[in-house]
């Protein structure tokens, strides 16, 4: 039995006059009267366990978007249900108002809605539904917590999709649909057209020109149907906070933008998330199924406090790829991690594939490097500058071994990686 504020007020209203004008036994009598009224009120309240509860929640929602959890309550008791219903979710589900008053006659049903604005990716599991049933006097209540299953998958925000239209426009230009032709080693022959001033003389088709009156040139279109494997590192380095979020979140944004762009370009995109084992995988999805599959696979990923098994990762890549492909590693450029982990095995990847390493830099390090306002700040700036020198040295070594390196701040990582993909595609290096 739970007492309400009304019972407390009623008790106080009777006790205060008695204290001012004391009469032996009056306090006890009044208290017993209030207790009796509360017991009667509880006895007349509908049983909260005689309420059928059904929950409906969407299967998924994008991070920061709004969705709802709907509860349908049916009063199976013979008494009127006057209740307060609490729809409990974890804090990261972002519940707005989760307590709802209900007044239901016997046999009738009502629906209550709780707005959810999730603040974290992953699976969000609903807690129990608590029903507090009041008596007609609302002096006391009966309460029960009922397990009602509910699960919501919070997908990545994909804020980097704002960069997609501009990259698709560049892709259309490369593809010849905007009257711009590109040429590079390994690109595919498209057609012949008349030579115009400014064309590359290396594109002239001398045999075709000799057969006609005009000089003609070959046009080329970017390669299609190439394989792109995105590898998201979920080891301890992905837990490092860069800005306001873990490095893993910046990697996920970059992976989504690259997948959207490569999918539109006609390439086959696959994904694996790896630390010491494969945490998630997308393979065989294309067209309109690609992005939902990517978002669903990336949503539950969390950093694992483990070192990356780089030989195992290389083995997983070779298991997926039998022909030359673009392998994009979304990891870190920390000197210690790269020198002891990636460098010893990177040659096994670059020997067969075009490899790109994309890493999010820490904006706080950049701020420390530029701040020289005092003695302590100068020491911090020196430490930050030393760290950047080490990253630059590691970048140089990787590039000498055939790895394209993208080192950018978290908000710039996704568009920079997309630009690198377009450059490699235009040069025919996929």
UniProtKB/TrEMBL annotation:
Q: Which residues form the DUF58 domain?
A: 192-391
> What is the official name of this protein in its record?
DUF58 domain-containing protein
Q: Which InterPro entries match?
A: DUF58
Q: Show the Pfam families listed in the entry.
A: DUF58
């Amino acid at each position: 039995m739970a007492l309400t504020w009304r019972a407390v007020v009623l008790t106080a209203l009777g006790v205060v006059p008695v204290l001012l004008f004391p009469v032996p036994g009056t306090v006890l009598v009044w208290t017993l009267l209030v207790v009796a009224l509360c017991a009667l009120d509880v006895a007349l309240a509908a049983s909260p366990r005689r309420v059928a509860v059904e929950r409906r929640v969407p299967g998924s929602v994008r991070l920061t978007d709004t969705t709802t959890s709907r509860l349908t309550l049916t009063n199976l008791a013979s008494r009127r249900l006057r209740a307060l219903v609490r729809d409990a979710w974890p804090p990261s589900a972002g519940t707005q108002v989760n307590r709802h008053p209900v007044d239901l006659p016997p046999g009738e049903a009502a629906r209550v809605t709780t707005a959810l604005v999730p603040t974290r990716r992953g699976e969000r599991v609903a807690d129990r539904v608590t029903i507090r049933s009041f008596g007609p006097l609302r002096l006391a209540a009966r309460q029960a917590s009922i397990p009602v299953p509910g699960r919501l998958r919070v997908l990545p925000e994909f804020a980097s999709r704002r960069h997609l239209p501009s990259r698709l426009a560049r892709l259309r230009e490369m593809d010849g649909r905007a009257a711009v032709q590109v040429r590079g080693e390994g690109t595919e022959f498209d057609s012949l057209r008349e030579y115009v001033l400014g064309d590359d003389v290396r594109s002239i088709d001398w045999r075709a020109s000799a057969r006609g009156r005009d000089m003609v040139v070959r046009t080329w279109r970017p390669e299609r149907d190439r394989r792109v494997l995105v590898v998201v590192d979920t080891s301890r380095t992905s837990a490092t906070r860069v800005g306001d979020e873990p490095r893993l979140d910046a990697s996920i944004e970059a992976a989504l933008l690259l997948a959207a762009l490569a999918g539109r370009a006609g390439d086959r995109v696959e994904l694996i998330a790896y630390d010491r084992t494969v945490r998630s995988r997308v393979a065989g999805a294309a067209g309109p199924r690609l992005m939902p599959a990517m978002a669903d696979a990336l949503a539950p990923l969390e950093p694992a406090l483990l070192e990356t098994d780089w030989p195992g990762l290389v083995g997983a890549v070779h298991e997926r790829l039998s022909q030359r492909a673009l392998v994009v590693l979304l990891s870190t450029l920390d000197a210690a991690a790269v020198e002891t982990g990636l460098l010893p095995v990177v040659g096994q990847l670059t020997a067969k594939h075009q490899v790109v390493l994309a890493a999010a830099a820490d904006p706080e390090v950049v701020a420390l490097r530029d701040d020289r306002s005092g003695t302590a700040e100068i020491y911090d700036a020196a430490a930050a500058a030393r760290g950047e020198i080490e990253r630059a040295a590691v970048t140089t070594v990787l590039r000498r071994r055939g790895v394209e390196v993208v080192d950018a701040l978290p908000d710039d990582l996704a568009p920079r990686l997309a630009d690198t993909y377009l450059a490699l595609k235009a040069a025919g290096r996929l």
